[in-house]
Structure formats: C-alpha cells, structure tokens
Design a protein that fits this description.
This protein has 651 residues and is an alpha+beta fold. 58% of the residues lie in helices and 16% in strands. It has a six-stranded antiparallel sheet with strand order 3-2-1-6-5-4, sandwiched between helices. α1 packs parallel to α3, α8 packs antiparallel against α9 and α17 packs across α21.
C-alpha cells in the first residue's frame, strides 16, 4: 500500500520546526531516521533526506551569519572604543577580550616591542593563569611572535611544541608550557599596507588543546589586530600632540616671561640711566635698585669699603659689616666675591648675598651688593647685573670729577707744604673755593712705596680717598693725603691706608700719620712730623707698615715737635707707677737699681738693702706688669730712658 503524501509533509514540517528552533544537526538528521522507521517509501525517503541536507546547509549558513554578525558587532564596538579613546590600555584589553570570546580560545594576548630594552614584552593578556607567561619577554626573532614580526604575516600552529617553523628558546617554551598552551594563532599589528607596512606588535589567540584555526578565524583576528594597531598609533599621536601642546604652552610662557622681563629691564635701565644723566648720586642709584629688586642694596669701592647703602626693610642696614667702615675681613671677602663675579662675567651668590663686580674695562671699580633675595631669578638677576653697568658709569664720572678736583687741590697742597707762611689767609680762601676748609682739623698721611709701584701710588691714593672728602698730591717723591678728622687717630689711619694702598698698588706701601692739625702752618708742621716718622719707619725696617710719631716710643719723643716727655714716661712705666702708688711698693726703684748695677742681682740687693729673693720677686712682678719681653735690648733702652726722664722730672 503506497505511503500517504501527508506523511512526507509531516516530516518536512518537522525539519522546518527544528530549523526554526535552532536545533542541533543531530536532531535534523534524526528526522530521516524517523521517516525510515515509519515505513516511508523509497521515493518519499529520498525526498526527506534531500530536505534534511538542505536544512543542514541552511543551518550552517545561519550559524555563519550569526557568527559574522557577532564578529561585525565586535568590530563595531571596537571601532566605537577607538572613537572614544581615552585609555589605551582599556582599549587593548577590550580587543584582546573580544578576540578570545569570538574565537572561543582559552586565552588571548598582545605583545609590543620595547625599544629601550630591544625586546618584546606582554602588554595585555586575557585568560592567562601563569605569572611566568604574563611576564615573558621575547628577543626579536624568537618564537612564533618572532616569525610573525619577521614576515608580517599571520601564522597558526596547531601544536606549538612540535612546530619547527620558528626558533624555540628555553625561556619562551617554559612560559608556554607553564601556561599549558598548545594551539596558537598569531597575527601582526601593522601600520600601513602592502610591503611598506610597519609591524608594531602582534595579537595572539591560543588554546590548551590541539586546534586548527579556520581561515575566517584568522581573518577575524587580523581585523582585531588592525584595530589594535590603529589604537596604538592614535594613542601615540595623541600623546605626541599633548607633548607638543605642552611644549608650545611652555614656549609661549617663556616668550611672555621673556617679553615682560625685557620690557622691565628696558624700563629699569632707562630709569637708572636717567638718574645718572640728571646728576644722581650713588645713593639714588642704590635706592632705585633696592626698589626694583625689593632688597637691601650697598655699593662698595674696589677695596671693599662701603660707599652707600639703602635698606628697604627698615632698621639697620643688613649689609654694613661691623661698624660703618666694615672689618678688614669683610672687605677682603667682598673683594674676593667681586673678583669671582668679574671672572664669571655674572653676579655671584656668596655668604647670603648677591655680589656683582662694577667694572671699567677690566679695572675693578667696586661691587654692587644685594641682600634679602636668595631666590634671585633670571630676569631679576640680569636687572641686577645691568644695574652694575650703570653704577660703573656713575663711579667713572665721579672719579673723573674727583681726579680733576684733586689735581687742582693738589696744587693747593703743594703751595701749602712749601710756603705756608707766605699767604696763610689766601691759602684758606683758595681751599674754600675748592670746597676744602683748611681751618678744620685734618690728619696728615705721607705714603711712599718702591720705585716699581711709585707711578701707581698717586692713582691708588685718589681711589682710596674717593668719597671721603680728602685730597692727595705728589710731593717730594711721596704722596701726601689730607683727610678730614672723623675721630680716627693718626696711627690707626696710617695703618688702614697702608693696607688699602698696598692692595690697590699691589706693592708694599709705608704710611706715616700726624695730626690732627688745622690751618696752613699746623698742617705744614704736621707734614714735616709725618715725613720724619716715615724716615724712622724705614730706618726701623718697618716698610709696608703704618704708624704715627706717638707710637714710636722714645723715637717719637725725639722726632715729635711737642716732645711729650710725660706721655712717654706714662706709656712706658705707667703700670709700675700705678702699682707702686696703689700698694706702696718699690718696683720703680728696684728696676732703676737693677739697671744701674748692670743687671746683677747681687749688687742690686746690696744697693736696695734687701734679700736677693726680694729682688727676684720684684722683678717677677715687673715682668707680669710689663710683659715677658721687658728685658730685651730695645725695651731695656726705652725703660732706662723713661727712668732717667722720670728722675729728672722729680719722680
């Protein structure tokens, strides 16, 4: 009995239902078995089998379409990630995760070259469980990745351990073994197309079991690798752009800062120059610099002496060392700092202050000193250095005027020393016209040096007197300096001048002092006394030193015009006289007897009618009062002369 057509239709409908439900291929194949079991005829059975084959093809096509749809969705999502690229690592992790998901592999990873180290490292992994594998580094040309990078082509290995198409190394094989990988597919990350493409890394998908990767899987991984390459290149371009923008912003800031600094420097220079052209003084320039730089400013001469200072923070000026004139150590430190500034051609920071040399060519006129600005930056530092140029201009102008005035005044000094009695009133009048009052008390200094430096001594004297109100002139082979009295004694003034003039000339300068003296005759007499003192210093071998007649002991008594006998006796025997007066002792008579007896203790004790031990004890007391050198030949001579004068005066 022939099979009813309705039964064939029933089986065909069943195939459609299973196909619509997405049933597996086994269920589709079971329909033909059911038709055979139900007794379908040969023709009907053939029809059902043909329909089953068609259903299987449709199922395969639908599966491919779904897979392609998933791949396209993943690619679109990746493209969206790239469009909103913010974090390169996040985009690369997303690409690797999608590669693993779409290819259905156990793991996926991406490697990039390390240009500094010269090898390749794991940038991103997904599904990895081995720390050794995650930290694996590959030398260029090693492993499957090396083959991909060298050929710029994808490679698939169904069994990595037995594949001999690439170079195996112990470290790579150990990492792959620790991860348990067997089948590996690697594709290059290419920038550009064709033979000119640049390999910048590789993308891998791997299974822990043997597997043959289909061509469409290779193509999918290549598409993801292209996106990864674009992401890396885009991130690099964005990084380069950010760096360029930062550099551009920094350059713009520097340009703006430089422009402001240049404008400020120009305005400051114009302001300082205008001060000089309007006849401003050093005090005005120092005040302007202090106001511009918000710090305390001082100007010192070439020997380190302060010429002027301005404190913007109130109170005592921070830059004045010690007293108003500064100590010799402070002056020497400033000169050394100024020399360093001259050598460096820039301001230098020394001992908490900025020092800039004030130069005329290579001649050190002085230095500009700034306190309170340890953080002096580039523009302000250049302004400070520019201020030293204006200061040097002002010092040169002042020195030129001073030299001219000094020459005119020098003629007056020459007349004063040679013919003081010819017209004393006329000399005083001439001095006043030159701004120099001879009726005021003055100190007389006479300076002399060796022949080699004699030509430099007159110029050094002008520099030394600069700003002090004094005057100098060459006279009879020496330089005479006339200084207004400021409370300094002639001996102290002579020693200070000897040191300063010695530094300015670079040679030993001997200076003798006298005074104070007021009026032409007294000044001329003081000069004569200073000349005698200068000769005495030379005779005593004290060249290069400074002193006054009063400091030369009995020689001063002989050389001085006033013959201060009482002063000499007091200066020589004063400690003994005071001791005898306070305690009723006889140290003066013991010392006189000791000298009268030629230094014999035995004869001295007989002359004094005391025990020899008493003489020894008194001499010990004399040594304690006069010092250990009281019995030297030079000291003995002065003591004996003082004892004679004391006796003659009724002592």
């Amino acid at each position: 009995m022939p099979h009813e057509p309705a039964s064939v239709t029933r089986h065909l409908r069943r195939l459609l239902e299973l196909l619509a439900a997405g049933a597996p291929a086994e269920d589709l194949g079971a329909v033909a078995v059911q038709a055979r079991d139900s007794g379908a005829g040969a023709e009907d059975l053939a029809e059902v089998e043909r329909a089953t084959e068609a259903a299987l093809r449709v199922q395969t096509t639908l599966r491919q379409h779904r897979r392609r749809e998933a791949e396209l969705t993943a690619l679109f999502d990746t493209a969206g990630d790239l469009a909103a690229l913010r974090d390169l690592d996040a985009v690369l992790r997303s690409i690797v995760r999608r590669a693993r998901m779409l290819l259905g592999t156990d793991t996926a990873y991406l490697t990039l070259p390390d240009e500094e180290a010269g090898d390749t490292y794991m940038r991103v992994t997904d599904g990895s469980v081995s720390e050794l594998f995650q930290n694996l580094r590959l030398e260029l040309g090693e492993g499957l990745g090396g083959l991909v990078a060298q050929t710029a082509r994808p490679y698939a290995s169904p069994d990595y351990r037995t594949d001999d198409r690439f170079l195996h190394t112990g470290s790579i094989d150990a990492g792959v073994l620790d991860e348990g990988l067997v089948a590996i597919l690697g594709v290059p990350l290419l920038l550009g197309s064709g033979s000119g493409g640049q390999v910048i890394g590789a993308l891998f998908a791997a299974d822990r079991t043997p597997r043959t990767f289909a061509p469409d899987e290779v193509a999918l991984l290549c598409s993801l690798a292209d996106h990864a390459a674009i992401a890396i290149d885009t991130a690099k371009s964005m990084t380069d752009a950010r760096v360029a923008m930062a550099e551009l912003a920094e350059a713009n800031a520097v340009i703006r800062e430089h422009s402001v600094a240049m404008q400020r420097a120009e305005e400051s220079h114009d302001r300082l120059t205008d001060l000089v052209l309007r006849g401003g003084e050093l005090q005005d320039v120092a005040a302007a610099v202090a106001g511009l730089l918000k710090g305390d400013v001082a100007v010192h001469d070439g020997s380190g002496r302060p010429l002027t200072s301005v404190a913007v923070h109130g109170g005592a000026f921070a830059g004045e060392p010690g007293d108003a004139g500064g100590t010799e150590e402070e002056a020497a430190a400033l000169v050394a700092a100024a020399e360093s500034s001259r050598t460096a051609a820039h301001a230098v920071f020394r001992d908490g202050r900025w020092v800039c040399a004030v130069l005329a060519g290579q001649e050190l006129l002085g230095c500009l000193v700034l306190f309170g600005r340890p953080d002096l930056d580039g523009p302000d530092r250049r302004l400070f250095e520019r201020s030293s140029v204006v200061t040097s201009l002002l010092l040169l102008l002042r020195r030129s005027v001073a030299e001219t005035e000094n020459r005119v005044r020098g003629d007056l000094i020459t007349d004063l020393l040679t013919t003081p009695d010819r017209d004393p009133a006329g000399l005083v009048t001439r001095g006043r016209r030159l701004g120099f009052d001879l009726d005021r008390p003055h100190l007389l200094l006479v300076a002399r040096t060796g022949d080699a430096a004699r030509g430099r001594l007159a110029d050094a004297a002008v520099q030394y007197l600069f700003g002090s109100g004094g005057v100098s002139a060459e006279h009879e082979g020496a330089v005479v300096l006339l200084l207004p009295c400021d409370g300094t004694g002639p001996g102290e003034a002579a020693r200070g001048a000897a040191g300063q003039l010695g530094r300015l000339t670079g040679a030993a300068v001997t200076v003798a002092g006298a005074g104070p003296a007021a009026g032409p005759r007294a000044i001329a007499a003081g000069h004569a006394e200073a000349v005698r003192c200068l000769r005495a210093l030379h005779a005593l071998g004290r060249d290069g030193h400074g002193a006054s007649v009063a400091e030369l002991g009995f020689l001063g008594v002989l050389l001085g015009d006033l013959h201060d006998v009482d002063g000499f006796v007091t200066a020589t025997l004063g400690p003994l006289l005071d001791y005898d007066a306070q305690r009723g002792t006889q140290l003066i008579s013991t010392l006189r007897a000791y000298f009268d007896c030629g230094g014999s203790l035995t004869r001295a004790k007989e002359a004094l009618h005391v025990h020899v031990n008493t003489v020894v004890q008194r001499l010990d007391r004399i040594q304690a009062l006069l010092g250990p050198e009281w019995n030297t030949p030079e000291q003995t001579l002065e003591l004996q002369l003082a004892l004679r004068l004391h006796l003659l005066s009724g002592g």
